[in-house]
Amino acid sequence: GDGYQQRRPAGLNAQLKTFQVVFRVTTDAEREALSAFLSWHGGYRAFLWKPPKHNRTVRVVCREWSITDNARYSDFSCTIEQVVR
C-alpha cells in the first residue's frame, strides 16, 4: 500500500526489532545470488532469517540495502525489519 503502519503500545507488534547488518560476499556468484534474492523479495515479501546471537528464526523484510564493491569482496549493508505474517 500507501506506507501506512499500525502501531500499538501493547502486544507483539510493539516488540518487533530492526537490525542493521552487513553481509560480506567474496565471489561474483554469491554477489549475484544475494542481489537476486533481495530484489526478488522487493522489500515487501517476508523471509525467515536467524539474527546473530539468537536461537530462533524470525520473519523479516529487507526494504533497504546498498552494495559496496571492493577489490576482493562486496558488502551488502541491509536494514532487516521483523514483521508479523
UniProtKB/TrEMBL annotation:
It holds the Pfam family Phage_min_tail. It comes from the Bacteria. This is Phage tail protein. It comes from Escherichia coli. The lineage of its organism: Bacteria, Pseudomonadati, Pseudomonadota, Gammaproteobacteria, Enterobacterales.
